[in-house]
Known about the structure:
11 helices
Amino acid sequence: MRLTxxxxxxxxxxxxxxxxxNPSAKxxxxxxxxxxxxxxxxxxxxxxxxxxxxxxxxFASALRSLxxxxxxxxxxxxxxxxxxxxxxxxxxxxxxRRWLRYFTDDDDEARHEPRFEPPDADALQAAREVYxxxxxxxxxxxxxxxxRYINGLExxxxxxxxxxxxxxxxxxxxxxxxxxxxxxxxVPTLVDCMESGERWKSR
Length: 203
């Protein structure tokens, strides 16, 4: 029986090993980055039945284009950019087909409920309300907002993930914040959350 030797090494070594066809390196790529990418995608899309598909497509796209990665040490932000781009495509597709939701039944709606619900009922309801508002935002603004305020990336990392300049991402965030706060003020569960945080309290 042939045993696969576990891969060990930094990101640059990992990239070189994948390019050389090392099967354990591909497995390591998934093990190393799947939790981070799943978290990012979840924060962008919300808890969604298509999360696994987006995550799978992210890794498939990364493996297809790995030869174009110029700096192997920048693997993490490069993967974040691919995950963001893949989620963006999903959001745009969803926007185009949103009218179909009027023809779904209750059982179909139930299948799109969050698979990993927060333990607190109030937190779950607040999360649902947040994504109801995010669904109304332009896709680019939603991405910037989710990456910055839900996923917690620094501004430069948000800009890198969205593949835009820092100035552009700042403008998108400003527009997204204004729209989000204006909508959230009409939602009692979110008003309480905003009042408990310093960033949103005065808005």
